[in-house]
Design goal:
Largest interface: A-B, 49 and 54 residues
Oligomer: heterotrimer
Radius of gyration of chain B: 20 Å
Order of helices and strands of chain A: HHHEHHHEHEEEHHEHEHHHE
Strand order of the largest sheet of chain B: 3-2-4-5-7-6-12
Structural class of chain B: alpha/beta
CATH architecture of chain A: 3-Layer(aba) Sandwich
Number of domains of chain A: 1
Bound molecules: thiamine diphosphate, magnesium ion
CATH superfamily of chain A: Thiamin diphosphate (ThDP)-binding fold, Pyr/PP domains
Chains: A alpha/beta, B alpha/beta, C alpha/beta
Strand content of chain B: 15-25%
Order of helices and strands of chain B: EHEHEHEHHEHEHEHEEEHEEEHEHEHH
Strand content of chain A: 5-15%
Helix content of chain B: 25-40%
Largest sheet of chain A: 5 strands, parallel
Structural class of chain A: alpha/beta
CATH architecture of the largest domain in chain B: 3-Layer(aba) Sandwich
CATH superfamily of the largest domain in chain B: Thiamin diphosphate (ThDP)-binding fold, Pyr/PP domains
Distance between the termini of chain A: 65 Å
Number of domains of chain B: 2
CATH topology of chain A: Rossmann fold
Number of helices of chain B: 13
Number of strands of chain B: 15
């Protein structure tokens, strides 16, 4: 669909500097669509009483799809947090796997142990996700140390976190250590201005997280997190720097959380509908769609076809995952340690 | 370390830790050591002295002072195929890393359904009797033994230090390796040469006896043994078990002994309330209550926050071979 | 004195009276003398442990002069002998702590140099690095909450301690709430054996301030007057509602970390001797003599007096009793305590 001939090469100028093929541009867009629709599906299933919990990343589509495009599958390591559905999709997790996680089925990555969206796949280089804020950051640093130690040049770790996570001690300790050892790791902050109900100005004394980079002696970059392409290029550059021995970077993508924190949250208690509606004007999904249309990467009917395809995929994945069994009760006891992990021996 | 034969050498506990770490570093380049002052200083007890010269600063990492990340970074290393040995300079400084040990390391395997694992050793000196005051003398085992997914070892003898440290390093899961700092230079013993392991969860019957079972670990196992031996002159026969591992723990050894002697005394340096002795007591009560001829007794630290720096405060907190002998005598005569 | 960086311009610009200048200097002498005494007593086998702050004298004496006794709060760390002296602790109290006597502030429970005095505004602290910083932040919050204008909290720590998560969490919180708080980092370039470059990639700690949204500044901690000016400036801002400041004083740790440490395992004698050339104690002595604040005769009299005071304090403290074994069980909760209630 995106392969059709375009006459005017000058219309392509804005894309050229990103070095992305049309196929990649469309892939980014498709990840964004998938992310949004899967999220809707999660909220739907929750309202239908089919699953107890769902969380959403609406507003994070651009930063996640862009960052995922900069990630080298089969080489890099992703150490994400719970709001990274789009990143997970972008590096290869399938909608079916996402639905297994939402339904907490036995075939889920964690076999139904963890909350939804807490993936783990060694094949994809996707670390197991913790619900505990910032706990993943030292792991990302340790993984980067392992990459450096193996002398395995050309690989890097991408780790992500929210604005609220930057207040944790482990955030600081992780940046400091990575800087001392010039480790191949990119710290990507998805600054959506909210941590559940806590706004940025109660979270930190100044709103620009990237400015902390200087204190650690590493580059700090800020990008419009609603723009998939600048997100892509900032993360690509930072990962390239990391892979080639240039050390860590802190990239801050300014985005927004359109929905409540999770299905358990009611954001009307702490922010106005006007604020949210106002920020919706900057919705990254129609914005990117517009861009692709404007420069004829896609035509209107392509977009429709894409959306239909995504919806079909999600419907299929939903049905398949729902039909799968829960883990058996005995699975509660499995895999505590390599052995049974019984506290008493004998 | 003086070599007494080709089969074994005499070492103290510091030397045993050092020699074992050295072999591990030499034999497996996935192994690395990270902690505060482990490099040029060679750890505050000189356990890793000169390691940095031999193995380089990439494998002997002087970390910033940040315990949460010392453990957390080691977790990430372990997840990516290295075999980190993290050091917490004193057990008293382990609290900032509680989240990473209890919430993360112990759950990586479980939460990823085996996709990722965390073969990690966290070593730390613990225990009192060294004028360490509130913040250089605590016992932390009870704070951790509640945690599935974590293993805990607390050897008392140099040969066990080596065998259990080797087993901990080989273990595919996170192990908290507790070294009693008072025993570091005090306790010497024969250590077999060459590589060997002692399985985690196997207690050691130190002394056979027929009238009372004493279960202990760490520094107090030495004092309990001393007390039990001294009681032989009075014709009292006390059996002493060194747990060596706290999680998993050797149920078979405890039950076998208790069923023979029909009396149980548990001795530990950590606080009594909710301590290791509580779990052992409960297990024996569940499994062997009717084999007992006397109530189970625990001799443990008073329930105060810590021992103090001033001599009388430390002495009051710590038990002694004399106090242990008194308790043993009372129980045998019960 | 050629080897010092101390500003030899007019002393007047610091707004300190001569007796304040002399008090700063006396504090520095006392600090050094008491440090020596602790190490001596340790060598004599009389105390199991001692800790020195040599190299920090100017920084601590200068900072203490900017502290308002009776109104400010100090949240120090274990190397702050001079600060604690400067805000009013006596050598006798220091010796009680070194000897772990019952009359010590914490009843002989803690290591030496771990003071606490409500009267002096000195918060109790442990040996656990950075653990005191959230407490200091809480104290600053209380001051702001109660609207106690003119009061502020001075918190200190070493360079190594800035790596702790709690350091970061504290800095972030004071910035969010614009608390009356001054973070004074005593950067002596070492954390036991760990040099600055293994502790952090950017050695200028004050640069972190911008990331928190607060002013940051670095000063020469070998110069008690520059220190005084920097701390006073930050404390005044805090006291007047201007929010927190991160200030970094550069100094050096001349001695081993403690009597349990041998620093020759990780640094050379030459390196230490090189830095000794900047020793703040003789340097400040020279400045005061040069400016006629003290005569050489005054200086020797002061030294004698400091020695006498140290000797008297040593004897008085040593003669006192240890705490009783029963003291182990007090002050756990309010009232008597047993885990089992009957
Ligand atoms: C250590 C910890 N503290 C608190 C929480 C509860 N919690 C879950 S998400 C969240 C907000 C996180 O905000 P942010 O880091 O900005 O990420 P966002 O959800 O906005 O993407 C909080 C407080 C937690 N999961 N872990
Ligand atoms: C939480 C914690 N970790 C480690 C230690 C051990 N320790 C005591 S002092 C010290 C070095 C501190 O260095 P710095 O903060 O620079 O202060 P300095 O001693 O140089 O004044 C270390 C690692 C401790 N007391 N507390
Ligand atoms: Mg957020
Ligand atoms: Mg220091």
């Amino acid at each position: 669909m995106a392969t059709k001939q375009r006459a005017a090469s000058k219309t392509r100028v804005p894309f050229e500097r990103y070095g992305l093929t049309d196929g990649q541009l469309v892939a980014i867009f498709r990840t964004m669509l998938l992310q949004r629709m899967l999220e809707n599906r999660g909220f739907q299933l929750n309202r239908q009483g089919k699953i107890p919990f769902a969380s959403a990343s609406e507003g994070h589509e651009a930063v996640q799809a862009g960052a995922a495009m900069a990630f080298e599958r089969g080489k890099d390591i992703l150490v994400p947090y719970y709001r990274d559905l789009g990143l997970a999709l972008g590096i290869g997790v399938t909608p079916y796997e996402v639905l297994l996680s939402l339904f907490a089925r036995a075939a889920d990555h964690s076999a139904g142990r963890q909350f939804p969206h807490h993936y783990a796949s060694r094949r994809l280089g996707l670390h197991t996700i913790s619900s505990v804020i910032a706990a993943q950051l030292p792991h990302a640093v340790g993984a980067a140390y392992a990459l450096k130690q193996s002398g395995d040049g050309g690989r890097a770790v991408l780790t992500t976190f929210g604005d609220g996570a930057t207040s944790e001690g482990e955030w600081h300790e992780s940046l400091n250590f990575a800087a001392v050892h010039r480790l191949p790791v990119v710290f990507l902050c998805e600054n959506n201005e909210w941590a559940i109900s806590t706004p940025l100005d109660k979270q930190m004394g100044q709103p620009d997280i990237y400015k902390r980079a200087e204190g650690y002696g590493i580059p700090g970059i800020v990008v419009d997190g609603m723009d998939a392409l600048t997100c892509y290029s900032a993360v690509r550059d930072a990962l390239a720097r990391a892979r080639s021995g240039g050390g860590p970077s802190l990239v801050e993508a300014k985005c927004y959380r359109f929905l409540a924190h999770t299905t358990d949250d009611d954001d009307r208690a702490y922010r106005s509908r006007e604020e949210v509606a106002n920020r919706r004007k900057d919705d990254p999904v129609p914005r990117f769609e517009q861009l692709l249309l404007e420069y004829s990467i896609l035509e209107g009917q392509d977009v429709e076809a894409l959306k239909r395809g995504v919806l079909e995929e999600i419907n299929e994945a939903t049905d398949r995952a729902e039909a799968m069994p829960y883990p058996s009760p005995s699975h509660l006891y499995d895999g505590v340690c390599a052995d049974r992990g019984e506290p008493w021996l004998g | 370390m003086a070599v007494v034969s080709t089969q074994s050498s005499v070492m103290n506990n510091v030397e045993a830790v050092r020699a074992t770490l050295y072999e591990a570093m030499k034999n497996d380049d996935r192994t690395l050591i990270l902690g505060e002052d482990v490099g040029a200083r060679g750890n505050v007890f000189l356990i890793t002295k000169d390691f940095i010269n031999e193995f380089g600063p990439q494998r002997v990492i002087d970390t910033p002072i940040a315990e949460a990340s010392i453990v957390g970074i080691a977790v990430g290393m372990a997840m990516e195929g290295l075999r980190p040995i993290a050091e917490i300079q004193f057990a008293d400084f382990i609290y900032p890393s509680y989240n990473q040990i209890v919430g993360e390391a112990a759950k990586i395997r479980y939460r990823s359904n085996g996709e990722y694992t965390c073969p990690l050793v966290i070593r730390t000196p613990y225990g009192g009797g060294v004028r360490g005051a509130l913040s250089h003398s605590v016992s932390v085992e009870a704070l951790f033994y509640h945690v599935p997914g974590l293993k805990i070892v607390a050897p008392a003898f140099p040969a066990d230090v080596k065998g259990l440290l080797n087993a901990s390093i080989d273990d595919p899961d996170p192990v908290l390796f507790l070294e009693h700092k008072k025993t570091y230079r005090l306790i010497k013993g024969e250590v077999p040469n060459g590589h060997y392991t002692i399985p985690l969860g196997k207690a050691n019957l130190l002394k056979e006896g027929s009238q009372l079972t004493v279960v202990s670990y760490g520094l107090y196992v030495h004092w309990a043994l001393e007390a039990a031996i001294s009681l032989e002159q009075e014709g009292l026969s006390v059996e002493v078990i060194d747990l060596r591992s706290i999680r998993p723990m050797d149920k078979a050894a405890i039950l076998e002994s208790v069923r023979k002697t029909r009396k149980l005394l548990i001795v530990h340096e950590d606080n009594k309330f909710g301590g290791i002795g509580a779990e052992i007591s409960a297990m024996v009560a569940e499994e062997a209550l009717f084999d007992l001829d006397a109530p189970i007794r625990r001799l443990a630290a008073p329930d105060v926050p810590a021992m103090g720096y001033a001599m009388p405060l430390e002495e009051e907190y710590m038990s002694s071979p004399g106090e242990m002998a008194d308790a043993m005598r009372e129980m045998v005569k019960f | 004195m050629a080897s010092t960086d101390i500003a030899t311009g007019t002393l007047e610009r610091y707004g300190l009276r001569d007796e304040q200048l002399r008090a700063i200097f006396r504090n520095m002498l006392l600090q050094r003398q008491l440090d020596n005494r602790g190490f001596q007593l340790n060598r004599q086998g009389k105390v199991p442990f001692a800790l020195g702050s040599e190299g920090h004298e100017a920084l601590q004496a200068g900072a203490a002069m900017a502290f308002n006794r009776g109104s400010d709060v100090l949240a120090p760390y274990y190397r702050d002998l001079g600060l604690c002296l400067g805000i009013g602790l006596s050598p006798y109290e220091i010796m009680l702590s070194i000897f772990a006597r019952a009359a010590d502030h914490n009843g002989g429970r803690q290591f030496p140099n771990h003071y606490s005095s409500r009267a002096a505004g000195l918060m109790s602290f442990s040996s656990i690095l950075a653990a005191h910083l959230p407490h200091a932040v809480g104290a600053a919050y209380a001051i702001k909450y109660r609207g106690e204008a003119g009061r502020a909290v001075l918190a200190t720590c070493g360079d190594g301690t800035t790596s702790e998560g709690e350091w970061h969490e504290s800095m972030n919180f004071v910035a969010v709430h614009k608390l009356p708080f001054v973070m004074l980092v005593e950067n002596n370039e070492w954390a036991i054996s760990t040099p600055l470059e293994k502790q952090m990639a950017e050695p200028q700690i004050w640069k972190r301030a911008a990331g928190y949204g607060m002013p940051g500044r670095r000063f020469n901690g070998f110069d008690p007057l520059e220190t005084y000016a920097a701390v006073k400036d930050a404390m005044d801002r805090a006291r007047s509602g201007g929010g927190p400041t991160l200030i970094e004083g550069t100094c050096y740790r001349y001695l081993a970390h403690s009597t349990d440490d041998n620093d020759m395992t990780y640094r050379t004698r030459e390196a230490v001797l090189e830095r000794r050339k900047q020793d703040p104690v003789p340097a400040f002595e020279a400045v005061l003599v040069e400016h006629g604040v003290l005569t050489p005769g005054d200086v020797s009299a002061m030294r004698k007096d400091v020695l006498r005071e140290t000797n008297e304090a040593t004897d008085a403290a040593e003669a006192l009793p240890y705490p009783q074994p029963a003291d182990l069980y007090t002050h756990i909760y309010e009232g008597a305590w047993e885990p089992w209630q009957s």
